[in-house]
Amino acid sequence: MDLFLLSGGRIKVTPIFTRNTNVTFSKTTLTEPLNFPLQCPPDKNITIQTCPANYPEESNPKDDLVTCPDYFKWIHKDLEPWRETGITRETLDRASDKAHFRLIIKGGRVYVHQYMKSFQTRDVFTIWGIVQLLRMYPGQVPDLELLFLCHDFPEIWRRDYRPRPGVNVTLPPPLFHYCGHSGAFDIVFPDWSFWGWPEINIKEWNQLSEAINVGIKKVKWEEREPYAYWKGNPGVAKLRRQLMKCRDPMLRLYRQDWRREGRHGYRTSNLENQCTHRYKIYVEGRAWSVSEKYILACDSMTLLVKPFYFDFYTRSLVPMEHYWPIRPREQCHDIIFAVNWGNNNTQKAKTIGRNGSRYVLKNLQMKYVYDYMLYLLQSYGKLMRMNVEVPEGAKEVCPETMACPINGGKVRQSMEDSLVMSPSVKGACEMPPPFEEDELKKFLEKKENVEKEVVKWTNEYWEEQRKKQ
Fold it and tell me: Domain Glycosyl transferase CAP10: where (predicted)?
C-alpha cells in the first residue's frame, strides 16, 4: 500500500498503474462550465483510491483581456538565472537534498516523490494547490519537474555562487519556496495557506478574503480604535519579542497562544473579526509570515516593519501608498509616530489603509493566484533542458487520492472548500512585459526615497518631543 504522510495521519495515493481508465471523457474542449465534484467511493473499506479519468484534458476558455497585476513582472526576474542556459537534470538535482518533495507534471497528471515530511500540512496543501491549478487550466501546464522546499528560510544563497578565484562556480539549482530574499535564488511560489491552514482554523483564501471584506464594513474607519494592533506569536522571532517590549498606550499588543485557542474553539482568533483598529502592525516571523495578506486586507493603515523576506505579491507594494514603513531597529518610536501622524491626518491614513486593502482583495483574488502559478510554471517549463520522467517511488496525486481517504475534520473541509470544481471559462490575465532595467531601478529608488522621507518626518517629530521635555 502506498501512503502519503499527513501530519501524523496517512493519505493513500494512487500508484501510476492503478489509475482508473474505465471512464472516458470526450477530448472535445469545454465551452460551458461543468462541475466535477470529488468522486469518492461509497465503500470506506476500499483500500486503493484511484484518479478518475473523466476530468477534461483541456478547455477552451475565453480570452481575459485584463492585464495581470504588476507583481507578475517578478516572474521574469525570479527565473532570470536560468534564462540563457536552461535547466538540466544535473542542475535541478543539486537541490534534491534540500527539498521536501519533487513534483512532476507529465501529460497533465501530477506525480509526487516525497523526500521528507514538512511541518504540519504545508506540503499537502502546496501539492493540493498545484493539483487545483491543473483543474483550473487543464492542458495548459507543460511537462516539468520541480523541487519544493517547505521550511521557513530560503536555501539557495547567492553568496555560494559568486565567482571566486580558483573556484569553479556552478549554476544555482532552481528550488521552489514560499518566500524570497535579495540574497537568495529561491523561486517564490504561493504558500499553502491560500488553500487553508487547518491546524490553526484558517480558511482557504477565497472564503477568508470574502469574510474579511464583510468584516471591514462592520466598523467605519473613523470609529475604529485609534491605536496600532498586533496579535501573534512572539516566540518565533526576535523582532516580535522586541515589539512586545514597546510599552505605550498607542499600541495594543497581544500574545497569540494557539494551543489555548484550539482548546476554546478558536473563538477569539477569527481574522475577519480583527479589523477594529485604525492601524495594524505587520512584523515577520522566522522568515516571511502568511499573516501579511490578512493584515493588509483589513482596511487599516498597515504599519509594515521593513521585511527581510518577500512573498510573491509583496514586491510591488509601495510605501505611503499601500502601507506605512517602519524601521526594524526603531519599531517602537516609528509606530508611535505613525499612529500620531495618522490620528492627525485621518483622511490620508484612511486612504493608505484603503489602498492596501484594495491591493490585496483585488489583486490577490484566487483567480490571479492561479494565473500567477500558471505563468510561473509555463515559464519554468520552457527552461527544461531534460526529459521529464516519473521516477521510481513517485506516486500520482489527484483530489480523490488526497481527500477521499480523510474522513471529516478540518483538513478534509479545507480541501472541499478549495476544490476547483470545473475548468475556468475565462483564460488567464495578460502577462505584463518584464521590467526594463531602468524601470526597475526607478521603482526601487522611488520606494527608497519615500522611506527616507518618512524617516525624516519621524526624526523631526521626536526631536520636537525632546525639546518639549
Answer: 140-387
Judge whether 436 lies within some domain: no
Examine the domain organization and report whether 98 and 191 are in the same domain. Answer: yes
Q: How far apart are CA 394 and CA 145, in angstroms?
A: 12
Domain assignment present for residue 435? The answer is no
DSSP character at residue 285? S
pTM: 0.91
Whether the pLDDT of residue 24 is over 70: the answer is no
Residues 404 and 295 in one domain: no
Query: Would you place residue 256 in the very low, low, confident or very high pLDDT band (cuts 50, 70, 90)?
Result: confident
d(CA 269, CA 265): 9
The per-residue DSSP string of 370-411 comes to: HHHHHHHHHHHHTTB-S-----TT-EEE-HHHHHTT--SHHH
* Contact status, residue 303 vs residue 282, Cβ threshold 8 Å: yes
Residues 78-88 have a mean pLDDT of 97
309, part of any domain: yes
From first CA to last CA, the distance across the chain in angstroms is 74
| Average pLDDT of the residues of the chain | 91
73, three cell numbers: 513582472
Mean of pLDDT values over 7-20:
41
